[in-house]
Fold this protein.
Amino acid sequence: YTENDYLSYDSSKAITGLYVLTQADDWYHKNLYYVSMDGDREKMANDITDIEIRNERIYYRNADGDLYTAKLDGSTLIDDTKISRNVDRSFMSSADGKYVYYIKDSNGKNSLYRYNSAASDEPEKIASNVDRNGYYLSTDGKTVVYLEDIEEIDDYFDCGTLKYATDDSEPVKISTDGNNWAEIPVELTNGYETTYSYLYQKTEITQNE
Protein backbone atom coordinates (compact mmCIF):
# COMPACT_ATOMS: atom_id res chain seq x y z
CA TYR A 1 0.00 0.00 0.00
CA THR A 2 0.94 3.65 -0.44
CA GLU A 3 -0.60 6.74 1.16
CA ASN A 4 -3.09 6.90 -1.72
CA ASP A 5 -4.12 3.34 -2.51
CA TYR A 6 -2.91 -0.13 -3.41
CA LEU A 7 0.54 0.08 -4.96
CA SER A 8 -0.69 -1.37 -8.27
CA TYR A 9 -3.45 1.28 -8.48
CA ASP A 10 -1.58 4.29 -7.09
CA SER A 11 -1.72 7.29 -9.42
CA SER A 12 0.41 9.68 -7.38
CA LYS A 13 3.38 11.38 -9.04
CA ALA A 14 5.78 10.33 -6.30
CA ILE A 15 5.69 7.51 -3.76
CA THR A 16 7.32 8.53 -0.48
CA GLY A 17 6.84 5.27 1.38
CA LEU A 18 5.05 1.94 1.58
CA TYR A 19 2.69 0.43 4.15
CA VAL A 20 3.33 -3.25 4.66
CA LEU A 21 1.52 -5.96 6.62
CA THR A 22 3.84 -8.68 7.92
CA GLN A 23 2.84 -11.95 9.52
CA ALA A 24 3.29 -12.08 13.29
CA ASP A 25 2.81 -15.14 15.52
CA ASP A 26 0.32 -16.79 13.17
CA TRP A 27 -1.38 -16.17 9.81
CA TYR A 28 -4.26 -14.27 11.46
CA HIS A 29 -2.18 -11.70 13.35
CA LYS A 30 -0.14 -9.15 11.39
CA ASN A 31 2.03 -6.13 12.10
CA LEU A 32 1.75 -2.87 10.17
CA TYR A 33 4.99 -1.17 9.14
CA TYR A 34 5.86 2.00 7.30
CA VAL A 35 8.86 1.55 4.98
CA SER A 36 10.54 4.65 3.57
CA MET A 37 12.05 4.70 0.09
CA ASP A 38 15.47 4.57 1.81
CA GLY A 39 14.55 1.22 3.31
CA ASP A 40 14.01 2.43 6.87
CA ARG A 41 11.02 0.88 8.58
CA GLU A 42 8.90 1.79 11.57
CA LYS A 43 6.26 -0.33 13.25
CA MET A 44 2.90 1.43 13.41
CA ALA A 45 0.55 -1.18 14.90
CA ASN A 46 0.33 -4.84 15.81
CA ASP A 47 -2.40 -7.52 15.95
CA ILE A 48 -3.88 -6.23 12.69
CA THR A 49 -5.97 -8.52 10.46
CA ASP A 50 -6.98 -6.26 7.55
CA ILE A 51 -6.35 -2.75 6.23
CA GLU A 52 -7.54 -0.49 3.42
CA ILE A 53 -5.76 2.73 2.43
CA ARG A 54 -7.52 5.35 0.34
CA ASN A 55 -6.44 8.93 -0.32
CA GLU A 56 -4.13 9.26 2.70
CA ARG A 57 -6.65 7.60 5.05
CA ILE A 58 -6.36 4.15 6.56
CA TYR A 59 -9.08 1.83 7.81
CA TYR A 60 -7.88 -1.16 9.79
CA ARG A 61 -9.31 -4.00 11.85
CA ASN A 62 -7.50 -5.57 14.78
CA ALA A 63 -7.61 -9.16 15.99
CA ASP A 64 -10.34 -8.29 18.50
CA GLY A 65 -12.64 -7.23 15.65
CA ASP A 66 -12.39 -3.48 16.33
CA LEU A 67 -12.48 -1.20 13.26
CA TYR A 68 -10.40 2.00 13.30
CA THR A 69 -9.64 4.89 10.96
CA ALA A 70 -6.93 7.55 10.87
CA LYS A 71 -5.28 10.02 8.54
CA LEU A 72 -1.79 9.08 7.40
CA ASP A 73 1.31 11.19 7.68
CA GLY A 74 4.22 8.90 6.94
CA SER A 75 4.45 6.53 9.91
CA THR A 76 2.06 8.61 12.03
CA LEU A 77 -1.63 7.85 12.56
CA ILE A 78 -3.46 11.18 12.97
CA ASP A 79 -6.78 11.32 14.87
CA ASP A 80 -6.86 7.54 15.28
CA THR A 81 -10.56 6.78 15.86
CA LYS A 82 -12.38 3.60 16.84
CA ILE A 83 -15.45 3.22 14.62
CA SER A 84 -17.02 0.03 15.94
CA ARG A 85 -16.41 -3.34 17.57
CA ASN A 86 -17.21 -6.91 16.47
CA VAL A 87 -16.72 -5.99 12.81
CA ASP A 88 -16.44 -8.61 10.06
CA ARG A 89 -13.29 -8.71 7.93
CA SER A 90 -15.25 -7.80 4.78
CA PHE A 91 -15.28 -4.01 5.33
CA MET A 92 -14.93 -1.83 2.24
CA SER A 93 -14.01 1.86 1.78
CA SER A 94 -14.78 4.35 -0.99
CA ALA A 95 -12.11 5.46 -3.45
CA ASP A 96 -11.76 8.88 -1.81
CA GLY A 97 -11.50 7.40 1.69
CA LYS A 98 -14.53 9.29 2.95
CA TYR A 99 -16.86 6.34 3.54
CA VAL A 100 -16.41 2.86 4.94
CA TYR A 101 -19.05 0.13 4.91
CA TYR A 102 -18.87 -2.85 7.21
CA ILE A 103 -20.78 -5.85 8.54
CA LYS A 104 -21.24 -6.67 12.20
CA ASP A 105 -23.24 -9.28 14.08
CA SER A 106 -26.42 -7.81 15.57
CA ASN A 107 -28.50 -10.31 17.53
CA GLY A 108 -27.29 -13.20 15.41
CA LYS A 109 -27.79 -11.46 12.04
CA ASN A 110 -25.35 -9.62 9.78
CA SER A 111 -26.12 -5.89 9.77
CA LEU A 112 -24.68 -3.41 7.25
CA TYR A 113 -23.34 -0.05 8.48
CA ARG A 114 -21.95 3.11 6.87
CA TYR A 115 -19.44 5.49 8.49
CA ASN A 116 -18.61 8.95 7.12
CA SER A 117 -15.09 9.89 8.23
CA ALA A 118 -15.48 13.46 6.98
CA ALA A 119 -18.48 14.11 9.23
CA SER A 120 -17.22 11.94 12.13
CA ASP A 121 -20.83 11.08 12.97
CA GLU A 122 -21.95 7.87 14.60
CA PRO A 123 -22.09 4.90 12.19
CA GLU A 124 -25.40 4.57 10.34
CA LYS A 125 -27.15 1.22 10.27
CA ILE A 126 -28.46 0.56 6.75
CA ALA A 127 -29.94 -2.93 6.86
CA SER A 128 -30.18 -6.19 8.81
CA ASN A 129 -29.80 -9.80 7.71
CA VAL A 130 -27.59 -9.02 4.72
CA ASP A 131 -25.16 -11.12 2.72
CA ARG A 132 -21.72 -10.43 4.20
CA ASN A 133 -20.05 -10.93 0.82
CA GLY A 134 -22.85 -9.55 -1.35
CA TYR A 135 -22.56 -5.77 -1.25
CA TYR A 136 -20.89 -3.32 -3.64
CA LEU A 137 -20.19 0.41 -3.59
CA SER A 138 -20.40 3.21 -6.10
CA THR A 139 -16.97 4.71 -6.74
CA ASP A 140 -17.87 7.85 -4.75
CA GLY A 141 -19.03 5.66 -1.86
CA LYS A 142 -22.42 7.33 -1.59
CA THR A 143 -24.39 4.33 -2.89
CA VAL A 144 -24.30 0.73 -1.72
CA VAL A 145 -26.07 -2.20 -3.38
CA TYR A 146 -26.77 -5.23 -1.21
CA LEU A 147 -28.86 -8.34 -0.63
CA GLU A 148 -31.18 -8.27 2.39
CA ASP A 149 -33.39 -10.87 4.11
CA ILE A 150 -31.09 -13.70 3.10
CA GLU A 151 -32.59 -17.18 2.94
CA GLU A 152 -30.59 -20.32 2.37
CA ILE A 153 -31.80 -22.55 -0.45
CA ASP A 154 -29.22 -25.25 0.12
CA ASP A 155 -25.51 -25.54 0.92
CA TYR A 156 -24.56 -23.63 -2.24
CA PHE A 157 -27.30 -21.08 -2.96
CA ASP A 158 -28.84 -18.16 -1.07
CA CYS A 159 -31.55 -15.74 -2.12
CA GLY A 160 -32.66 -12.35 -0.87
CA THR A 161 -34.08 -8.94 -1.70
CA LEU A 162 -31.83 -6.71 -3.81
CA LYS A 163 -31.73 -3.09 -2.57
CA TYR A 164 -29.64 0.04 -2.82
CA ALA A 165 -29.16 2.93 -0.40
CA THR A 166 -27.52 6.34 -0.69
CA ASP A 167 -26.13 8.55 2.04
CA ASP A 168 -29.15 10.87 1.92
CA SER A 169 -32.15 8.58 1.37
CA GLU A 170 -33.89 5.49 2.66
CA PRO A 171 -33.05 2.08 1.11
CA VAL A 172 -34.88 1.30 -2.13
CA LYS A 173 -35.88 -2.14 -3.37
CA ILE A 174 -34.71 -2.79 -6.92
CA SER A 175 -37.44 -4.16 -9.16
CA THR A 176 -36.53 -6.36 -12.13
CA ASP A 177 -40.07 -6.23 -13.62
CA GLY A 178 -39.90 -9.88 -14.53
CA ASN A 179 -36.52 -9.65 -16.27
CA ASN A 180 -33.68 -11.95 -15.40
CA TRP A 181 -31.27 -9.12 -14.73
CA ALA A 182 -31.37 -5.73 -13.04
CA GLU A 183 -28.91 -3.04 -14.12
CA ILE A 184 -27.65 -0.62 -11.51
CA PRO A 185 -26.81 2.74 -13.15
CA VAL A 186 -23.78 3.55 -10.96
CA GLU A 187 -20.11 2.79 -11.07
CA LEU A 188 -19.51 -0.05 -8.64
CA THR A 189 -16.38 -1.28 -6.96
CA ASN A 190 -15.61 -4.32 -4.84
CA GLY A 191 -12.50 -2.68 -3.46
CA TYR A 192 -10.20 -4.06 -6.12
CA GLU A 193 -11.75 -3.32 -9.50
CA THR A 194 -14.36 -0.99 -10.94
CA THR A 195 -17.23 -2.04 -13.17
CA TYR A 196 -19.08 0.70 -15.05
CA SER A 197 -22.20 -1.26 -15.99
CA TYR A 198 -22.66 -3.90 -13.34
CA LEU A 199 -25.44 -6.46 -13.77
CA TYR A 200 -27.02 -8.31 -10.88
CA GLN A 201 -28.98 -11.51 -11.19
CA LYS A 202 -32.66 -11.38 -10.29
CA THR A 203 -33.07 -11.73 -6.54
CA GLU A 204 -35.69 -14.46 -6.52
CA ILE A 205 -33.22 -17.23 -7.31
CA THR A 206 -34.50 -20.74 -7.87
CA GLN A 207 -32.28 -23.79 -8.04
CA ASN A 208 -32.11 -25.47 -11.42
CA GLU A 209 -33.90 -28.80 -11.54
